[in-house]
Amino acid sequence: MQVRLIALTAPQIDIEGQSLTAEGLMAYCARVSSPHQESTDYEKLLAYCIAHKHWSIFEMADMTVEIVTSRAISPQILRHKSFQFQEFSQRYAQAQAIEHYTPRRQDMKNRQNSLDDLPPETVAWFDEAQERVAMESMALYEEALEKGIAKECARALLPLATQTKLYMKGSIRSWIHYLEVRTDPSTQKEHREIADGIMAIFVKQFPVTASALGWS
Q: How far is CA 57 from CA 33, 47, 101, 148, 190, in A?
């Protein structure tokens, strides 16, 4: 799993001689009807908007991140319809790697949960099984390509753990919702780790908003 910041909204105006940040732009737009639109003090304003659910101002800035994960996790991410996505295409490009997963025990009381308490011999069995699947499926996939079989057909031989890369772009409002949902313990661990990584980026780039949300 890897996440990294790719792009942020870049305002083209200065306030009091300083370049406006993406976070500052949200406050600037929120004050469209105020005589103090160019004020650089906006901590209370953003906190007020969050507290009273005035979410529209958080649609004034966007953030794009790059995510490296597996085909097992990417469908969960793509389910967030308020975002725009571009994903690595196994139809046009050759798959290069298969992700490794640490097994967990199924929680029999909650099908959304898994528990990290499997006996060592079960973990070892699963690790070996993954290695076999990865090696055999990749070997067959590469053989299929060598035989001239189209990538769009050969990909049927690949497991869900096959690595993929996607770009995820959305407004700060969308990111707030995504992070609230996907950092929750009910989210699959591998997806939650992605959300945690994105939250670290969010906190750095939008410190005032993050503080008002109780994230820092």
A: 13, 12, 39, 52, 31
Ramachandran region, residue 148 (left: φ > 0; alpha: ψ -120 to 50; beta: rest): left
91 is catalytic: no
Q: Is 2 helix (H, G, I), strand (E, B) or coil?
A: strand
Q: Which of 31, 105, 182, 192 is catalytic?
A: 182
Closest CA to 196 of 9, 55, 1: 1
Q: What is the reported pLDDT for 41? A: 87
Residue 122: phi and psi, rounded to 5, are -70, -40
Residue 140 makes CB contacts below 8 A (sequence gap 6+) with 157
pLDDT at residue 39, rounded to an integer: 82
Ordered DSSP codes for 156-211: GGS-TTBEEEEEEEEEHHHHHHHHHHHTSTTS-HHHHHHHHHHHHHHHHH-HHHHH
Q: Which residues contact 146 (CB under 8 A, 6 or more apart)?
A: none
Spans of the chain, pLDDT less than 70: none
Residue-level pLDDT at 153: 99
d(CA 19, CA 29): 15
Give the closest residue to 181 by CA, choosing from 85, 79, 102: 79
pLDDT at res. 141: 99
Sketch out the chain's domains with CATH numbers.
8-62+170-183+197-212 (3.30.1360.170), 91-161 (1.20.5.3070)
| Strand-pair partners of 98 | 162
